[in-house]
């Protein structure tokens, strides 16, 4: 009796030993047209093994790629698709570049810092003033989300002044931000809505 452990390792174990044997036989067929007919038959059998995946995009293309892999790219036929290259199977994807820039205040986040930079670039006017108000209120909301306690507007204005490198200067005499309790109430309401939506799925 022969055990599977004594046989060659399967390239794609999910298809099993019988399919691998069919592929190995297909490679040995001398007549090209007959080889292609054999390959088509194997592809149909492989597809029938996973009927639930037939609606997946490029399902047939994936099967032909798998056939080529199981044949160790030695199956000489006219493939209906451009199959994966052998050298690409084990190639590592390029490294993703991560930003190493320092976030001055983590509770405000990087996106808000970028928005502050955009606000600085705007010309003086109503659009800039409106954006600055929105940013200041968002900073206060973020601060409260992290710290769960009240915060003076003066603290927010001071942080905004620092983030803008002194180019945005607000004072409590000219600007009044939303009340802490109102911001916290909105945050709790949004959180409850999200939780309720998840439970309803």
Overview of this protein structure:
The protein has 201 residues and is mainly alpha-helical. The protein has helices spanning 16-28, 32-49, 59-70, 110-121, 126-147, 153-163, 180-199. The model has no long low-confidence stretch (mean pLDDT 83).
Put the structure in a nutshell.
Helix content is about 55%, strand content about 0%. The protein has about 200 residues and is mostly helical.
Defining traits:
single chain; 201 residues; mainly alpha; 54% helix
Largest sheet: none
String of helices and strands: HHHHHHH
Radius of gyration: 31 Å
Strand tally, please? 0
Shape: rod-shaped
Compute the separation of the termini in Å.
Answer: 52 Å
Mean pLDDT metric: 83
- Broad structural category: mainly alpha
Question: Helical region count?
Answer: 7
Percent range for β-strand residues:
under 5%
Low-confidence stretches: none
Query: What is the helix content?
Result: 40-55%
Which helices and strands occur, and which strands form pairs?
Blueprint lengths: L15 H13 L3 H18 L9 H12 L39 H12 L4 H22 L5 H11 L16 H20 L2
Helix pairs in contact: 1-2, 2-3, 4-5, 5-7
């Amino acid at each position: 009796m022969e055990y599977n452990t004594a046989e060659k390792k399967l390239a794609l174990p999910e298809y099993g030993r019988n399919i691998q044997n069919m592929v190995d036989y297909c490679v040995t067929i001398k007549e090209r047209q007959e080889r292609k007919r054999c390959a088509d038959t194997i592809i149909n059998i492989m597809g029938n093994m996973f009927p639930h995946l037939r609606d997946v995009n490029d399902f047939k293309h994936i099967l032909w790629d798998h056939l080529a892999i199981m044949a160790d790219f030695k199956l000489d036929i006219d493939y209906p698709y451009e199959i994966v290259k052998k050298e690409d199977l084990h190639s590592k994807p390029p490294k993703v570049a991560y930003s190493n820039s320092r976030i001055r205040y983590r509770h405000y986040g990087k996106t808000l810092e970028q928005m502050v930079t955009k606000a600085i670039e705007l010309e003086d006017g109503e659009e800039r003033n409106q954006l600055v108000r929105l940013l200041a209120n968002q900073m206060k909301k973020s601060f409260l989300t992290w710290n769960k306690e009240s915060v003076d507007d003066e603290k927010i204005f001071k942080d905004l002044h620092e983030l803008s490198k002194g180019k945005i200067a607000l004072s409590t005499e000219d600007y009044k931000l939303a009340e802490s309790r109102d911001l916290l109430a909105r945050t709790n309401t949004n959180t409850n809505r999200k939780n309720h939506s998840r439970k309803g799925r």
